[in-house]
Amino acid sequence: MNSSHSPRISRRPIPDPGQWPAQMLPLLCRLYAARGATDAHLAQPRLAQLHPPEQLQGIDAAVELLATAISQRKRILVVGDFDCDGATATALAVRGLRLLGATDVVHAVPNRIEHGYGLSVGLVAELAALQPDLLVTVDHGIACLPGVTAAKALGWQVLVTDHHLPGPQLPPADAIVNPNRGDDGFPSKALAGVGVMFYVLLALRAHLRRQGVFAPGAEPDLGVLLDLVAVGTVADLVPLDANNRALVAAGLRRLRAGQGSVGLQALIRASGRHAAKLSASDIGFALGPRINAAGRLEDMSLGIELLLTDDPARAADIAQLLEEINSERRAVQQQMTDEAQAAVARVQGLSLDSRPLAACLYDPEWHPGVIGLVASKMKDQLYRPVIAFAPAEPGSTMLRGSARSIPGFHIRDALAAVNALAPGLMDKFGGHAMAAGLSLPAEHLAAFTAAFQAEAGRCLQPHQLQAELLSDGELADHELDASHARALRAAGPWGQGFEEPLFDGVFSVVQWRVLKERHLRLVLRTAGGRELNAIHFGGWQGVAPSARVHLAYRLAEDDYRGGDAVQLIVEYCAAIEDAGVAAGVRMEATPA
User: Fold this and answer.
1) Which of 42, 65, 393, 528 is least surrounded by CB atoms within 10 angstroms?
2) 80, exposed or middle or buried, with CB in 10 Å at 0-12, 13-18, 19+?
3) Does a cis peptide bond (omega within 30 degrees of 0) precede residue 179?
């Protein structure tokens, strides 16, 4: 059950757990301390601990633009992005501005195939028919110099709110709010686009409060928007530092209480999740992908409509449509991933010393909305930085690329280095440490591939090319129960930079069977004699598991069996040498 890219399992050091309330489970104290949180305030931050909005560079100018637009009843146009962060940020901006008194707020979002990323010159030309007075970008804009310039030429005011890394030149906007500006001293650089816009709304409300705009007891409650903040933040895979955990935890509390937006409640039901038990991982693996599917294969305006509607019937219809689009997305993704795997089969067969340190994959039939998912899958398989390319639109000679990286190789900086050494290869690029996007002419692909692989060779060291699973150690038999599983689910939010607990240990395989020709259902026994159910998604490799295995796993409630049943979600399984082969319940695949 190992492969040439098998990860190594390393255990997190266990520091002094610090000071905790007596009722705190010892396991949680240990997990929090291993993630740098040594007291309850750090482990479970509250909204009162948020960094103040006034620490953001440009926030005063942004507030002045919005306050003037509201008081003078100007038309505000919110322009979003076609991913989940962009969709939630758009819905949050529209809802929040209306809550704060704006009477003329409209929104738009680029079509991935027709317009490409961000505020382009072509998109601005189309938006001219809306005749906005103030254009507000959410989750993009910092790299859209031509688009902002075009908007300013039409006489519009422009407010850029973004969280992506800026280039050497900032756009000529009237105000820019981005914690990742070089001159910004905001303590948290991890805000998602939706988080940045939420902060702008907080500052705007404070300004309006000082101006005496709100009647006594009538100040709008922006907390009703935190479900949107939580979904966009988790889906965008930004680090969950203390500031973001406070925002996400508050949003999760609303969703669990059934107080989220009508659209998100409908989406939770359509995805088969239970609102009362919703976790950050449910957002990442269920809600986020369904919203993202609209922008990948159709138009993100559908996802934004879901987040803006207050009609339960319409929300249910859109949620079901997104469910169908997401199923189509999965099928397209699987086909593209199969083709990518075939393309790298030769690379896989090379020795580790001769295998390229980065991969650029392209197929003229691939869909540009799914290349990011393919790049992510292939990055995981190869454990190399991967860029997947597709035509920007059918028949186009312009390619769009989506890049995914591994720890230690900053993908946006690598693209900047390539651009500096070989200017003109790329039309544009942008992104973060672990993910980026770019576009280039098809005739430049070969030269770009060579330059990108050379940059990877310059930066990457051999020890960086093996995946590492960080384990929180073994669980004792008494910890493998429902009370601990429930505590783990409720204790987060877990996510990027505050990883969901992963444990490891050696088990005997009592029984096993194959589900849907891909997954392994296991019955395991601990050294202490306790039997447990486990599931290893994608774990069937055509070979019976060893009689004894070393697992990396997560502890979870077994919602299918209910009650106090628990199961182990296996992330990695390695055979214990000379242990023999486990006796299977049956060898053939069985339906789930």
Assistant:
1) 528
2) buried
3) no
